[in-house]
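Email to the structure team, subject: 3'-5' exonuclease model.

Hi all, the expression group asked for a predicted structure before they design truncation constructs. Nothing fancy, just the tokens so they can compare against earlier work. One-line instruction: predict 3'-5' exonuclease, return tokens.
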Amino acid sequence: EPQNKVIDTVFLAKKYMKHAPNHKLETLKRMLGIRLSSHNAFDDCITCAAVYQKCASIEEETNRKSNTEVLDETAVYEAVKKILVRNKRDIEWIRCMNVGSYLDIKAFYPVMRVKVKGRKKYVLTEILEDDVKEICTSLNCEPALKSEVGNTRIMLNSLEDVLKLESYILGQYDFVLRALHDYKQSEMNADEKLKEYLNIMV
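Reply from the structure team: attached below.
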């Protein structure tokens, strides 16, 4: 029995080429401008490969657009949660709250502070500019204002820039969860405080 992976191009075409009048190979071949004979195994393989490539490029474009969609507080918060879930982190403690014009993403303690309201959009961090370049060379940054809590602003132009901060977000989250664990061990009324946090923060 063949062990090779099978890709159903009819399923893909129905999902990604919805504007096609039907999803027969002959129709898709005409849409893609392929001039090959039909009902010939080799030529049909070439057509199926072209359908697959077209569907893959449509999916890539869709993902790119979703990563550059509107950069607001909800989108950033959801992107951070997705990063944590994808990397098998427990998001039971993750919450967000507005502090002035900033959004604080917390796990009892602050994980990151983001500003996406107004002209400049950025993550406010304690790390220095050189450390930002180690995370991702394509991210731009500038010094934080003296009135801000932090050293560096990592500028955000799109949701894609948030995703580039994956290693930073994971590092911050893990650090905060360790601090939370220590707090639970050492604080007398920790359970009460944590219950309060989970109930109040939305």
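The mean pLDDT is 88. Strands lie at 95-99, 102-107, 109-115, 122-125, 141-143, 152-155. Ping us if the truncation boundaries need rechecking.
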